[in-house]
Amino acid sequence: MGNPEGLRALEEQRLGPVLRRREQVQPGTTDQRLLDTEGDSEWVHTDPWRVMRIQSEFVEGFGALAELPSAISVFGSARTAPGTPEYDAGIRIGKALVDAGFAVITGGGPGAMEAANRGAREAKGISVGLGIELPFEQGLNPHVDIGVNFRYFFVRKTMFVKYASGFVVLPGGLGTLDELFEALTLVQTRKVTRFPIVLFGTEYWSGLVEWLRNTVVAQGKASERDLLLFHVTDEVEEAVSLVTKETAR
């Protein structure tokens, strides 16, 4: 082997699939940088490293959830207080989904999510929580039997859709609306098929439905048939019947 000190500066460098030329040529080799025991740790905050973290989250999520039976994702506010009608409805929905043969997936947090997980656990079903790293995160609620915590919202959202046959959406805030409209968009654009979306609580959701009909559809920003992508109900039995019927169970 020749002496590296005697080599002239490279004009072209290939690092795996990456080509670098002229001033973009990097000193040393990939192995050298890997085995070098000195240097700072800034590399763990670079985008290529984040790609590995993202990949690992997908792998962990797929591995944990791959053997779930048919499931329904239940969304709702983390601020829903125990003992309220909304919390009690979440418990009843969790139980009814298990009785219909579904596992229950939530965001794993408190409030409406905890209620649905609690109902699933009390009905002896599979209770899943998909948590997210947040500055004010409280951890997974105690009624979760299978829990996965994610750093990235988009990975978590993929798990909600991939391993669920439909959504039941209780009253909630911005996070719930985000999940709802993502699901509606996926169904509208046919990225997913046979995916029922049920909004629970007609009084809460009526303003949104009217805005969609009288503003969004009326101004041509969506079509009338897009209003058929979801159902609205106040009845637990009807909510479960709708997701059961549309998933052909």
SSE topology sketch:
Elements: E1 12-15, E2 18-21, H1 30-35, H2 47-65, E3 71-75, H3 85-99, E4 103-106, H4 112-122, E5 127-132, E6 146-150, H5 153-162, E7 167-169, H6 174-188, E8 197-200, H7 202-217, E9 231-233, H8 236-246
Parallel strand pairs: 3-4, 3-7, 4-5, 5-6, 7-8, 8-9
Antiparallel strand pairs: 1-2
Helix pairs in contact: 3-4, 3-8
Please summarize what this structure is.
The chain is α/β, with parallel strands linked by helices.
How would you characterize this protein structure?
- Helix content is 41%, strand content 15%.
- It has helices at 30-35, 47-65, 85-99, 112-122, 153-162, 174-188, 202-217, 236-246, and strands at 12-15, 18-21, 71-75, 103-106, 127-132, 146-150, 167-169, 197-200, 231-233.
- A 7-stranded parallel sheet has the order 6-5-4-3-7-8-9, sandwiched between helices. A two-stranded antiparallel ribbon has the order 1-2.
- The protein is globular and about 70 Å long.
- The protein starts with 11 loop residues before the first strand and ends with a helix.
Would you count the extended β strands for me?
Answer: 9
Alpha-beta classification: alpha/beta
Shape estimate: globular
Largest sheet: 7 strands, parallel
In terms of DSSP E residues, the strand content is: 15-25%
H/E topology pattern = EEHHEHEHEEHEHEHEH
The tally of helices reads 8
User: Terminal Cα separation, in Å?
Assistant: 68 Å
Overall helicity? 40-55%
